[in-house]
Write a structure and sequence with these properties.
Blueprint lengths: L5 H16 L9 E3 L4 E3 L1 E3 L2 E8 L23 E2 L30 E6 L7 E7 L17 H5 L3 E5 L4 H5 L9 H16 L5 E11 L1 H10 L10 E5 L9 H15 L5 H5 L3 H12 L26 H7 L7 E6 L4 H8 L2 H6 L1 H6 L4 H7 L5 H27 L4 E6 L18 H4 L8 H5 L5 H17 L15 E5 L4 E4 L6 H5 L1
Helix pairs in contact: 6-8, 10-14
């Protein structure tokens, strides 16, 4: 099928570039005044990047487990030309697909702004929330650079937030869902400041992948986030979260039972950061039966106040209302895990990934995925139970309520040795950000990922961010047709492509 080309969308952004070129006196300033003080960014080919801009005070000492507090104002220009500290402390090395820098420092509640021109007016804004299972990940990844979006007239903001115990463990003496409060504080900063960077606070789209996609889904259920964004993009999202209240409390009880440390802010606040990370490892270690922490147990949960409803109620009640939502998944999200687990049966027995696919009806899977061998079927069961099935249920529920929804599957497969033949978790991101030459991409995509596919996927996101619709070639998902975009070498819209999976995904 035909797709929008990069040139098509550049016509929209081109007017801005042409106006700038025709005015010799008007050049973008690398210093911007925020509500807290002036910040200096660094010029790039497509605009200016302001990195590590604080949106809240460092969450340390008495603020360690508190709601985010606005930063103290400053008068001297703050140099924002390098990424700020990250909540991720321990480098994940080569075990992650996405390059995830860990940067030391206490001021982790910072964000990065990539703008085509701070002197512009009314540009749409993409606010990106990184993934990492709610316990890892970094907003400083080169895969989240805003270069291509700036080229196409979109301001990009990537937000840091507290992870793991600091962000999500239910603690006496501390607000629940502290990381969700961080996301909201970041969005409030965008509301109050983004016009100074050329953006329009009324045209904000929130987006994220994996846990970041789960963040988008959780924010759609959060009343205090209402009005801070107008649309959402959920890529391979952890939409089984928000967990329910009982699950959130159960993780806190398990923490105390396993570590001997009370789940209280007072008990944890005095502990060194490394000690708390060690306790988190103890909490998440595989255990016998019900002693294992649920997969993504440290995650948003319905606390009854900030987040009123868990995912099942959200599906029934249409949380998010008429907020447009673009969502989807890759063909083989976690199929790779089944291959690795098959090589280590002892680890497989207690693996959260294996547990996620346990109980699947293999006869139904054989019918849904004809020709797949047992390991492939196990991998598909894991992928379907964690990401694909839950995302499909979101699309079905929203379509049943006639809410604006667009569904996709990323089906292009890598040629890199470790990912050969797989459309695995995370592999769609360099296409959506149009960053096929970013560090680490070749290692996981192979030597020649198709630029034409990146053009098409990226431009669909740009169109959605600008116009709340990814383009005329990609219709809304409705229950009568179930039209879904299939991204591949031959991208196309297919009617009801998951009819064979519907029974196992919705049962």
């Amino acid at each position: 099928m035909p797709h929008l080309t990069r040139r098509t969308v550049l016509l929209g952004a081109g007017a801005l570039a042409l106006a700038a070129a025709c005015s010799a006196e008007r050049t973008p300033s690398d210093v911007v005044q925020t509500t807290y003080g002036p910040v200096r960014g660094s010029r790039r080919d497509t605009g200016i990047a302001f990195l590590g801009v604080p949106f809240a005070k460092p969450p340390v000492n008495e603020l360690r487990f508190a709601a985010p507090v606005p930063p103290a104002p400053w008068t001297e220009t703050l140099e924002c030309t390098a990424y700020g500290p990250t909540a991720q402390r321990r480098s994940l090395g080569s075990v992650t697909t996405i390059p995830e820098p860990s940067i030391p420092g206490a001021a982790i509640l910072n964000l990065n702004v990539f703008t085509p021109d701070p002197a512009a007016r009314g540009l749409p804004v993409l606010v990106w929330i990184h993934g990492g299972g709610f316990v890892a990940g970094s907003p400083a990844s080169p895969w989240y650079d805003g270069t291509a979006f700036n080229r196409d007239g979109v301001v990009v903001v990537s937000v840091g937030y507290r992870l793991g115990i600091d962000g999500f463990l239910s603690l006496d003496g501390a607000p629940d869902n502290r990381a969700v409060l961080d996301w909201i504080a970041g969005l409030q900063w965008v509301r109050d400041n983004i016009a100074s960077f050329g953006g329009d606070p009324a045209q904000v789209t929130i987006a994220g992948q994996s846990a970041g996609g789960g963040a988008v889904w959780a924010l759609m259920a959060t009343p205090s986030a209402r009005g801070l964004f107008r649309a959402g993009i959920c890529a391979s999202g952890a939409v089984t979260q928000p967990n329910d209240l009982a699950a959130g409390r159960a993780v806190a009880e398990l923490f105390t039972r396993r570590t001997g440390v009370p789940a209280t802010a007072a008990a944890l606040r005095a502990l060194p950061e490394d000690k708390v990370l060690d306790l988190q490892d103890v909490l998440q270690a595989p255990g016998p039966g019900s002693e294992s922490v649920p997969m993504l147990g440290l995650a948003p949960f319905a606390d009854g106040q900030l987040i009123p409803e868990a995912t099942p109620a959200m599906l029934n009640n249409g949380a998010g209302g008429d907020i447009p939502l673009l969502l989807g998944f890759t063909r083989h999200e976690f199929n790779m895990a089944a291959t690795m687990l098959a090589q280590n049966p002892e680890a497989a027995a207690a693996s959260p990934l294996a547990l996620a696919g346990r109980g699947a009806d293999m006869d139904a899977y054989r019918a849904a995925y004809p020709g797949a061998d047992p390991t492939q079927l196990a991998g598909q069961a894991i992928s379907d139970s964690i990401i694909r099935g839950p995302s499909y249920r979101v699309a079905e529920a929203r379509a049943g309520l006639n809410l604006p929804t667009w569904l996709y599957e990323f089906d292009w497969t890598s040629t890199a040795p470790s990912y050969r033949g797989l459309a695995a978790h995370c592999l769609d991101l360099p296409f959506e950000f149009d960053l096929l030459k970013a560090p680490g991409v070749t290692d996981v995509e192979g030597g020649a990922p198709p630029q034409a596919l990146a053009d098409a996927m990226h431009m669909s996101w740009v169109a959605f961010i600008k116009h709340l619709d990814p383009g005329s070639n990609w219709p809304r998902y409705t229950l009568d047709k179930r039209q879904t975009m299939i991204w591949s070498d031959q991208s196309r819209v297919e009617p009801d492509p998951f009819a064979a999976q519907r029974g196992i995904w919705t049962s």
